[in-house]
Amino acid sequence: MHEKGFINMFRGTAPQIVAVLGSTIGAISDGMHYGWSAPFMPILEKEDSHIKISHSDVTWLESIYLIGGLAGLPVTIYCVDRLGRKASILLAAVISLIAWILIALADDVIYLYVARFMVGLSGDVAFVAAPMYIAEIADKRIRGFLAGVIYVMMLVGILVVYAVAPFAPFYACSVIGSLFVIIQLVTFPFMPDSPYYLLQKTKSDKAKRHLMRLRTGENIDKELEEITAAVLRQRSERGRPQDLVLSKSNRKALIIMTVLNAAQHFSSISVMLMNLHSILKEAESEYVSFEIAGIMFSSFMLIAATIADFVVDKCGRKGLLISSSLLSGLALLVLAVYFTLKNSGQDVGGISWIPVAAVMVYAAVFKFGLGIIPIVMTAELFPAKVKAMGMTLADFSYLFFGLISVELYQRLIAVYYLDLPFYIFASSTLLTAIFSWWYIPETKGKTLEEIQFILKGEPIPSKEADLESSEGVAEAKDKDIGLEELPPTKEPV
Questions:
Q1: Could you write out the DSSP letters of every residue in 364-399?
Q2: Cβ burial, residue 50 (10 Å; 0-12/13-18/19+)
């Protein structure tokens, strides 16, 4: 990317970047919760632990986080459409703060169960509301970059909990996580709201004010008219749940997001994050300690995701997704072959560095595409009318396949060995590359409205047609037929 082009891409976007940072800083806390079980389970299993847990507690403390997310789906649907994207993010932050307090003060495992369930619920709300908010406030030049920030923040949280938990008192992570949430609760209320959401709620004057705050030094009349035209058009479309299947564009978006969310977990990411220490222990690698390996793993993911976030709007979503899937699949295949050799009685002492290297390569290449592109595209593919339903169903598939992948892994290694699940994960990830090449459209540089035409298989309207549409909206305003006079939207969610 040329330096001049890079500067031009970010020119005038400072208010958007600040708003996105305010909306996603709580994702650091969510990342700490997501990675919490990996370093804390060994601590809680020690004889001198202040909280006594059994082996079944270990399994349930990992699973109840995802179960809490599934239980939070109805809450998410209600919040993002009724309370709004911004209020939903703040609500999730409050729940996360309460959970950190429970963890810090816990003297019995039941408090950990309650806290883990709560953060599963709050994480579900936040990871639907924040991408929606970001997609709706972002300039299309940097929408991919801004949408990926939440994933980078989550990875920062995983790195923090991996780096702090093994070496600090039990309550230290709760204090750090609470600080990030408190910063969000103090700063984010002052950020602009989504113009799309405000127009949907017939608040056109407020939408214009907030769009002006997001677009420094720009004439926002044309963009406001485009957003208004999009909201008016989407209002005229029926927003029933069945339209996710009956509408061609919605159906394609739903298929893409279901497959990508399944692919993320069947590329073993949750298994890796929750079982990294045990995997490396079984590999009998003596090159690094488990604590250091965890820090290295999360560091590689963070670096790769950060680089991908900066290039996603230049290189595009599709290319990163395909290359990431191919390379992740190959890394998992190498890991599977290593375990096959070890299980067959072969002397693998001289090559015990291979599983460590494979895991680190996986961390880097997974987060460079497959680990970040799905969350970028989720907020782009669904139209505003069914966005809450579509993203919530995508989130359901993410949580559901997360549970399935973890359960599948645990059951297979109990009956067979580690190589079988990793052969399955490698095959799934390689198939994802084929699916991405064959079925997924490129959304780089496209407006949310243009993406809908692409999904429908229709040509994108010419600039002249856009101008006529804008003039039509302006004419409606001249005749005092504004959004304020439209009846409130009667949406099923």
A1: HHHHTTTTTHHHHHHHHHS-GGGHHHHHHHHHHHHH
A2: exposed
Pairwise CA distance, residues 239 & 350, whole Å: 60
pLDDT tens digits, 58-99:
778 888 888 898 888 888 878 887 888 889 999 999 999 999
Q: Are 162 and 35 in contact (CB under 8 A)?
A: yes
Measured N-to-C along each axis, helices 109-137 and 26-34 cross at an angle, to the nearest 10 degrees, of: 140
The Cα–Cα gap between 34 and 252 comes to 30
Hey, what's the torsion of the CAs at 138, 139, 143, 147, to 10 degrees? -10
Prediction pTM value: 0.77
Helices within 416-492 (DSSP H only): 419-439, 448-456, 463-478
| Ordered DSSP codes for 119-136 | HHHHHHHHHHHHHHHHHH
Best CA proximity match to 340, nearest among 319, 354, 357: 354
Model confidence at 484: pLDDT above 50: no
Sign of torsion, CA 59 61 65 68? positive
Give the confidence band of 7 by pLDDT, cuts at 50, 70, 90. low
Taking the CA atoms of the chain, what radius of gyration do you get in angstroms? 23
pLDDT at residue 445 in the model: 67
Q: Tell me if 253 sits within 8 A of 440, measured CB to CB.
A: no
CA dist., res. 492 & res. 469, Å (int): 28
Which residue shows structure tokens 């929750």? 274
Query: Which DSSP letter does residue 80 get?
Result: I
Question: How many CA atoms within 13 Å lie on the side-chain side of 319?
Answer: 8
Write the pLDDT tens digit of every residue in 410-456.
788 878 888 899 999 999 999 999 998 888 887 776 777 777 777 77
**Under a CB-based contact definition with an 8 Å cutoff, are residues 271 and 409 in contact?**
yes
Q: Give the pLDDT confidence score for residue 491 in this predicted structure.
A: 34
**Nearest residue to 273 (alpha-carbon basis) of 414, 407, 406, 94:** 406
